[in-house]
Structure formats: C-alpha cells, structure tokens
Amino acid sequence: MRFLKITPLVLLLALIFSSCSSVRVASDYDREADFNQYKSFAFFKPGIDKADISDLDKKRILRAIENEMLKNGFTKSENPDLLVSIFTKTNENINIYQNNFAGWGYGWGWNPWYWGSGFNTVNRTSEGTLYIDLIDSENKELVWQGMGTAALAREVNKKQERINEIVAKIMEKYPPGMEK
User: Fold this and answer.
1) Is the peptide bond before 175 cis (omega within 30 degrees of 0)?
2) How far is CA 105 from CA 8, 109, 110, 113, in A?
3) What predicted TM-score, i.e. pTM, was given to this entire model?
4) Sign (positive/negative) of CA torsion 34, 35, 36, 40?
5) 179 versus 66: which is more confidently predicted?
6) Residues contacting 120, CB < 8 A, separation 6+
7) What is the average pLDDT across 95-112?
8) What is the phi-psi region of residue 73: left when phi exceeds 0, alpha when psi lies from -120 to 50, beta otherwise?
9) Is the pLDDT higher at 118 or at 31?
10) For the chain, what percent of residues have pLDDT higher than 70?
C-alpha cells in the first residue's frame, strides 16, 4: 500500500526532471540555396540588437553559436558568406499537480475513518525559444532557420551550459538533409 503512495510522486519527479533536460528543435530552409557555397560567417548586429534578452545572455548565445559554427568548419570573416542573427521568445509555464493519495485510513473508496486529503504541487518553469537565422550575405535573404525550445536555467553557473546544449541541438539540423 505504501508503494502506491510513493509511486505517483516518483513518476511526477521523473517527468519534471526529464522535461527540463529536453530540447525541442525544428528547422526550415530555402530549397533553392546551395549550402555547399557557405564557408564563412559573421554576426548580423542589427538583428541581434533587437533580441529581447539581457546583454549577458546575448553574449552567451553568440559564444555558443560561434563555437558550433567553427566546429562545423566555418571561419569568422569580415566579408562573410552568411550572416547570423537571433530572435528569442520566453514563456512562463505554471503546472499544478494534484496528489490524492495522502491521509489516514484503509482501503479504497469512501471510509468513515478516513481523514485528510492530498496535496498539490505547483511548479513554475521559464521556457525559452531561440531562433537562429542564417542569411545569405550577398542577397540578404534568409536561407536557413533553426529553432529550439527548452526550459531555461535559473542559476547563473548553469546558464552557459544550458545555452550550449540548446544551440548544439539546433545546429545539428544544419546543413539541411545532413542531420547528425
């Protein structure tokens, strides 16, 4: 009987922790673009300046993108083939979990000696969506967009690690058709 009281709580905690670590990603691209021609990149300052996040988080994101681009064989250049821009959105999620397994008594159903009620757990998470835009520098046209949505880290010492994870997952979708 005690097992039945503990199992839902353990499952709830497992769900919460597993949902915090996942990153949902998607990408879209111009099917006419020749992605083999792109070898260098630079950041598109006007687009980045519009991102509605702190300057510290912008630096963290740009650092992570630069590392991923360099890992993928790109070089940073004053005369780039691609311009990199970002856009962000955040949502506050409030989840209420109800547990009706607490109290005194025995058996299932109504019981005159049963006393107590369950407890509710309220969980708040901030979820962010990062869009990474790759723009053909010659035509000034968007050729690829990657998007990743994930729970955000609240602790300063874990922010860069979380951003690195999100950016890496997004950049796995580039180049199109070559997902790792």
Assistant:
1) yes
2) 19, 10, 10, 6
3) 0.73
4) positive
5) 66
6) 96, 97, 98, 99
7) 58
8) left
9) 31
10) 71
Q: Which two tokens stand for residue 85?
A: 């821009």
Count of alpha carbons within 13 angstroms of residue 132, beta-carbon side: 32
**All residues at 6 or more sequence positions from 63 whose CB lies less than 8 Å from its CB, including other chains:** 160
Terminal CA-CA length for the chain? 47
Residues 6+ apart with CB under 8 A from 86: 47, 48, 51, 58, 61, 62, 65, 130, 131, 132, 133
Find out whether 59 and 22 touch, Cβ atoms under 8 Å. Answer: no
Q: Which helix (H) or strand (E) holds 147?
A: strand 141-151
pLDDT of residue 109: 56
